[in-house]
Amino acid sequence: MRKYIRALGGFFIAVIILLIPLKISALADDARELRGGDAAVQISGGAPSGALRDGLRDSFIYLAGGSEITISSATPFQTVYLIWDKIPGDWTLEAGAATSGRSTGFLHEAVPLEEATDTAVVHIGEAGATLCEIYVFSEGDLPDWVQVWEPILNRADLLVLPTHADDEHLFFGGILPTYAGEMGLRVQVVYMTNHWDDRVRPHEQLDGLWTVGVRNYPLVAEFPDLYASKESLAAAEYVYGRETILEFQVGLLRRFRPLVVVGHDLNGEYGHGAHILNAMTLREALELSGDAAQYPKSAEKYGVWDVPKCYLHLYEENQLVIEWDEPLERFGGRTGFDMAVEGFSKHVSQMQYFSVQRGGTWQDCRKFGLLRSTVGADSAGNTDLFENIVIELEPTPTPEPAPTEPPATEMPPATATPTPAETASAEETAPPDEGELKDARTRLYLLVILGILAVIAVAAALIRRRR
User: Fold this and answer.
1) pLDDT for 9-66, tens place per residue?
2) What are phi and psi of 263, to 5 degrees?
3) CB 43 within 8 A of CB 61
């Protein structure tokens, strides 16, 4: 009897020894937010810094040019997450002797440090800046809510053109979660107007995009959201200038060279003048962007481009209806419609006025019409915006020895119709999926636990037999 007990005790000790490093490894995978006594923030000159650590975006501190923010922590940290109130001017973040981050023009900026440290300093440039919040994280995987933005694309598979922050969810439904989040295509969102006079909506804008899987930072135009533009097309043209918006649209098409473009309803959904102007100038821009004689400045800078396909919301010709009811693996089985609703839920300031809907007249986020195509008509029952478009992912090239003299950079030829070689470029080979590694560890734990239970059951049976 005693030998069974000794054997069982030895087994338990061995299992515990094996599990300890696995448990420590699992805990090390997730970054921990350092708050309170773990991390402190001090502003040069003794200015109060409490607003930077209160977790609120509606509190902020103006930092004069030349100001410094010192972050210190008893626990080494690996990432600093800055939430600015307005797009900041120049700034740098130093950790040790290295400059780990500098201004990118992002409102929400996650700065990974080259190595974990207990001290870092943010240097504010001469223009000054207004900062809402600083988050500090230990080593490991960042929480999902931390936005690590990629730069604005040089070239897009899909160009989405909402007028205001929240239109991308209300009227374009599951487009962003499906094509950016689930399929991982190069999706660029460009807003015709900005909300810089509002302290809330720019943050809601980024939160909504991040929620639905957009990872490339949006381009927000210089045109302010003016209430007067809401009344009618004439009002919007008076406020913004039709020619100005048309030139802007042509420049976008040439700059991003998209395979598919999605724009607003020609009637402005609920009659919004800026929506109408955005859609109508897009329709004109599609005919002009391939002509180098039109708006020659952008033609000289980017070349010309003839967009293969363009869809408009609610357009009645060549219409397709996308229910957005397919489960998306990227979002745990939630559908494109579910994610459109969730993305819009980040626009708290607008929820009393609108909601994402599958139905109604101007609200229906399922209906789109093919305005223009150079690749043929869609087939009956089509629900894919990229029908007849081939997106080729080239293999990651094998590194070659560096030449003694770097070759001159060649620009791709500017053509009106995309060739197979001009389709989507290859993405870098993705690193191992951290979620899969965690799942594997979880399965290992379960197997060990089942093994323990099996040993206990055998020992109990032997004891009963011994008696």
Assistant:
1) 454 444 444 444 444 444 458 999 998 778 899 999 888 999 999 989 989 999 999 9
2) -130, -175
3) yes
Q: Where are the alpha helices (DSSP H) in 272-335?
A: 273-288, 296-302
Asked whether 194 and 220 are in contact (CB, 8 A), the reply is yes
3-state secondary structure of 372: strand
Tokens describing residue 59: 């509190």
Radius of gyration of the chain (CA): 27
Average pLDDT over residues 339-359: 97
Contact 176, 160 (CB under 8 A): yes
Q: In the β-sheet with 319-321, what is the strand arrangement from edge to edge?
A: 219-224, 187-194, 158-160, 260-263, 309-313, 367-373, 319-321
Is 121 in contact with 71 (CB distance < 8 Å)?
A: yes
Q: Confidence class of residue 5 from pLDDT cuts 50, 70 and 90?
A: very low
Q: How many helices (H) and strands (E) does the chain have?
A: 11, 14
Question: How high does pLDDT run on average in the chain?
Answer: 85
Domains of the chain: 36-137 (2.60.120.260), 158-373 (3.40.50.10320)
Measured in degrees and rounded to the nearest 5, phi and psi for residue 158 equal: -130, 130
Total length of the chain: 467
Residue 453, pLDDT score: 65
Is pTM, for the whole model, over 0.85? no
Number of Cβ within 10 Å of residue 176's Cβ equals 28
CA distance 286 to 306: 7
